[in-house]
Amino acid sequence: MTTDRLMALDLLVSVLTAAAWMSAGVAAAARRPRTAAALFAVALVASLARVWSVLALAGAGWWFVQEKITVALPLLVAAGAAATALAGPRLLRAARRADAASREAVKAPAVAVPLLGAGYAATVGIVQTFLIGYPADPGTALLLLAVAAGAVLGTWRAMSTHVPGLRTATAVTAVAAVLGGTLVFVPSGETTAEGSATGGTAAMAATGSGSGSGSGSGSHEHHSASEGSASLMGAETRPVTDLRGPAVPPPGGAVRRFELTARTATVTLSSGRKVPAWTFNGQVPGPPLTAVQGDLVEVRLRNADITSGVTLHWHGYDVPSGEDGVPGLTQEAVPPGGEFVYRFVAAQVGTYWYHTHEVSDLGVRMGLYGTLVVTPKGTAATGLDLTLPVHTLGGVTVTGDRDQPLVRQAAPGTPVRLRLINTDNTPHRFTLAGTPYRLVAVDGTDLNGPGTLGRVGLRLAAGGRYDLAFTMPSDPVLLRVDDRTDSVRITPESGPPGDGAAAAAKGATASATADSAVDSGAVPAAGGQTAGWPELDLTRYGAPAPTPFTSRSRFDRNFTLVLDRGFALTNGRPAYAHTVNGAAFPDIPTEVVREGDLVRLTVVNRGRETHPWHLHGHRVLVLSRDGRSVTGSPLWLDTFDVQPGQVWEVAFRAANPGLWMNHCHNLSHADLGMMLHLAYEGVTTPFHGAHSG
Span 639-647, mean pLDDT? Predict the structure, then answer.
């Protein structure tokens, strides 16, 4: 059973356990001994099942059961044992007799209160998991214990005028509540987390929350965190403003100059529908930026009327830190009437995109994004090359600026490349029908030995990119998004489209040579149903190749990020936040590294939503997913989709000094706290502005 299903099963069992104990107590109080006895038996079985489900879930990792084993199960076992010892014998005797005296006997507090107390204990375990989240600590444990004890005392007092030791028990409960509240709500002084060396303790994994304060929605005083990385290590400092791109290109490179003006506008989609938007140069997506490897890219950003401000972040492109476009960290947001010039060398070939990073959840959704494609030096463009950003604009799925299928023609035998970019907050599923094809690049990096694909779905993480390549057949080819939206249709130039039989026949031959991890079979004709196609497992696709480091390498830093939901302080206000290690931005300690460090990052999703994880300024090498190593092509990613219950281990070489965001690229999650900083030792920032989502 997969971890996410075990999580769902454990939730079901925990709710059933709490309901059974509570119902048994209510039935006893209502003088129904046989009903109460039956529910008591159900509660015992459910409690044993809860113990089993927690132990089974523990096999996926301590992160998934930490609060269950340290808080929920001890409370449940203790309360359940007390209920069994105190109420069980009386309840069973009353159920056998079922006379008036027995019915009165089970109504007594000595029977009903222990049963209800076990229900309260089971309930606070659920509260810990779903309202407080990971990790359980002494403060939350004391608070929950006080809540359960207070509920027991209140119930007992409501059922009886005499409660032995009531004042003492009430005083002890109050002390526990005050002490727990103090431990929970008085912050520690920690603002940075230095990752452990191999054999040590992962600092981020052990961190609850650090200090930090902000003002306004989504704001953070970045200066203290970045200065901490310098003063903590006692290193020579340098400001992030010194880490900028060059003014002249490398020898042989050209200067590619672009101007982008952010402004509000109404855009017209291909169907004629008009949508209010935030635009670059009056269009959505913004103008496509192209360069040749070795060129110097210079982009002048102006803000006409975006009142919240705007920046440019180069998603997946390892620019110098001062060009990264994070407001309040690497620059101030460009206000209306202002401008900022970005410069960087186009060293990486591949498919990328740009977007605002100020109020980015809203800004990107409204249209402040565009594409960046860098082609290899010395190669001439051949065939059909389409860059296809997919976005939800005005409630409809658009490819580029089209809410209708994009139709292109290509002669049979023409090489075709489709560059898919997911600019939304959630994953998209792509299918390509009518031709065999290969997935040749992911997040801008070529795969090694990509096999032929046919009847498979391609799940693309938010922010991620796939490059598909094929030779145009003599029948039409259809790209579909989420199995319901026809995105691109390519037809042969030679005449009207056929019935797809020839393409299917050729697909059967081509797919027979597919990689063993791929579902082989006839390539379906364009227009067929695709919802039943299995998803491609990228960790098994392609051929292995040497990498500069592996899971057996010695790592200089180890960080663990446990992703969850729970009440936390975000910008000084309590919220039901998306948390990392139990804290929300800006109170998540900064990860501190030294230049040259080999860093391992373990990302655990114990929540119920997918988190596309994105580290700025670095590509990461996937080491494993759910404990299974990559057996296909090496995967170098800048965004990886951490689904519920998954554990990803990735690694990178700290070779791009600066201050970097490390966050969920579902930007609404980032806006609710799921982001933090990675800082190189000695790098500081002079900026103190607000950064929102």
Answer: 97
Question: Rounded to the nearest 5 degrees, what angle is found at the Cα of 71, between the Cα atoms of 67 and 77?
Answer: 130
pLDDT band, residue 453 (cuts 50/70/90): very high
Among the ranges 86-95, 161-170, 377-386, 673-682, which has the highest mean pLDDT value?
673-682
Residues 335, 363: contact at Cβ < 8 Å? no
The strand pair at 598-605 and 636-637 is best described as: unpaired
CA–CA distance, 533 with 529 (Å, rounded to integer): 9
Q: What is the DSSP string of 166-210?
A: HHHHHHHHHHHHHHHHHHHHS--S--EEEPBPTTS--HHHH----
Rg of the chain (C-alpha set): 29
Mean per-residue pLDDT for 349-358?
97
CA-to-CA distance for 183 and 582, rounded, in angstroms?
A: 14
The whole-angstrom distance between residue 267's C-alpha and the CA centroid of its chain comes to 31
For the chain, how far is it from start to end, CA to CA, in angstroms? 35
Considering 379-383, 426-430, 584-588, the range whose residues carry the highest mean pLDDT is 426-430
624 vs 515: CA distance, rounded Å = 20
Exposure b/e, 582-605, CB count within 10 A at least 16 = b: bbbbbbbbbbbbbeebbbbbbbbb
**CA angle in degrees (0–180, nearest 5) for 451-456-459:** 100
pTM: 0.88
CA atoms within 13 A of residue 139's CA, in its CB half-sphere = 16
Q: What angle do CA 411, 413, 416 make, to 5 degrees?
A: 80
Give the Å distances, CA to CA, from 7 to 124, 528, 581: 17, 35, 18
Q: Map residue 678 onto helix, strand or coil.
A: strand
Whether residue 22 contacts residue 36, with contact meaning beta carbons closer than 8 Å, is answered with no
Write the CA distances from 65 to 4, 71, 205, 604, integer angstroms: 13, 10, 14, 12
